[in-house]
Write a structure and sequence with these properties.
The protein has 322 residues and is of the alpha+beta class. The protein is 24% helix and 19% strand. Bound molecules: 2-amino-4-trifluoromethylsulfanyl-butyric acid (MF3) and cobalt (II) ion (CO) (2 copies).
């Protein structure tokens, strides 16, 4: 029998139509009684650089902020549907954050004008909520950070809007999986670059690109701390993980080339080739035996992971919305 000619899967197409800038509404108000981070007034986060290893007391507060962030993210995700504008998503996240007595950390952080980042299709990260309605077939990352009781909780997920194509489904699934492969390697004594190695190895299996310009970060009393967590293998990232370190891992994977450009708004990062990008983010603390994910939510559990990041069951929950 004649051998059938092997064909490569066609490369994922450019995301069309492209995401374009739309109208950005006024900044949302935060009631006087809600405690604010230092940059809320000026936009300048200052130079405070707390030690990357946090006290049990700070970690306890981060547990509460992390749980709140996870709940707000899940709440926002349940509202994602065709026709909803990202400005409405901003309102939903803003109000929910206030209901916890928290401040939405993105608001005026280095001048960011809104309360959450919403990044659609070829937008990699830092998308500014605006008047664009979500369309059937879009994918959207919602990146929630809350400042609660003096510490930040930071987590994000990418959601499907209505029915999405098979490339986007795979991109979302494997970006999430790459985050869990990375969480799996976290324990005291391991060099930080093992995190990026795990993400890169996973991405390679699915021919996905790994964005290099944005990395995970130390977090706690400050939004972005000194620890730097590349999502690719970086031989120079040799610092050793220690119990009590708190940081995020937030890989951005792409269907094509991960090279990026930034819009004139100086925030919105997009792939130069126009192909789609997805991102998932968790905040975690290194423990004696591994790590504890501080932003776990029920939906992660439904996807087969517990707070140590370990797979506890066969990955269930095949649906595209996390
Ligand atoms: N939440 C983002 C992160 O994961 C940071 C957003 S900064 C903002 O690090 F100013 F755009 F909000
Ligand atoms: Co974030
Ligand atoms: Co982050």
């Amino acid at each position: 029998m004649a051998k059938r000619k092997l064909r490569r899967a066609p490369a994922a197409p450019k995301s069309v139509p492209p995401v374009l800038p739309a109208l950005i509404g006024p900044r949302r108000a935060v009631p006087r009684e809600i405690p604010r981070p230092p940059y809320a007034l000026t936009g300048d986060p200052g130079r405070s650089r707390p030690h990357p290893v946090r006290s049990p007391e700070v970690i306890e507060r981060m547990r509460a902020a992390g749980r709140a962030a996870a709940e707000i993210l899940r709440y926002a995700g349940h509202h994602v549907e065709p026709g909803l504008t990202t400005d409405k998503l901003d309102a939903i996240v803003h109000e929910k954050t206030l209901s916890y007595g928290g401040y939405p950390s993105p608001l005026n952080y280095r001048g960011f004008p809104k309360s959450v980042c919403t990044s659609i299709n070829e937008v990699i990260c830092h998308g500014i909520p605006d008047s664009r309605p979500l369309a059937n077939g879009d994918i959207v990352n919602v990146d929630v950070t809350i400042f609660l009781d003096g510490v930040h909780g930071d987590t994000s997920a990418t959601f499907a809007v209505g029915e999405i194509d098979e490339y986007s489904t795979m991109l979302i699934r494997e970006t999430r999986n790459s985050l869990y492969r990375a969480i799996d390697v976290v324990k005291p004594g391991v060099p930080i670059n093992e995190i990026g190695r795990a993400i890169e190895n996973h991405a390679r299996k699915f021919k996905l690109g790994v964005v290099r310009e944005f990395i995970g970060h130390g977090i706690g009393e400050e939004f972005h701390g000194v620890l730097q967590i590349p999502h690719y293998y970086d031989s120079r990232a040799r610092a050793i993980l220690e119990e009590g370190m708190t940081f995020t891992i937030e890989p951005m994977l792409t269907l094509g080339d991960p090279s990026l450009g930034v819009w004139d708004d100086e925030w919105t990062a997009v792939t130069l080739d126009g192909r789609r990008s997805a991102q998932f983010e968790h905040m975690l603390v290194v423990t004696a035996g591994g790590c504890e994910v501080l932003t776990m939510c029920d939906d992660d559990a439904a996807m087969g992971h517990d707070a140590s990041g370990a797979a506890v069951t066969q990955a269930g929950g095949a649906d595209a919305n996390p």
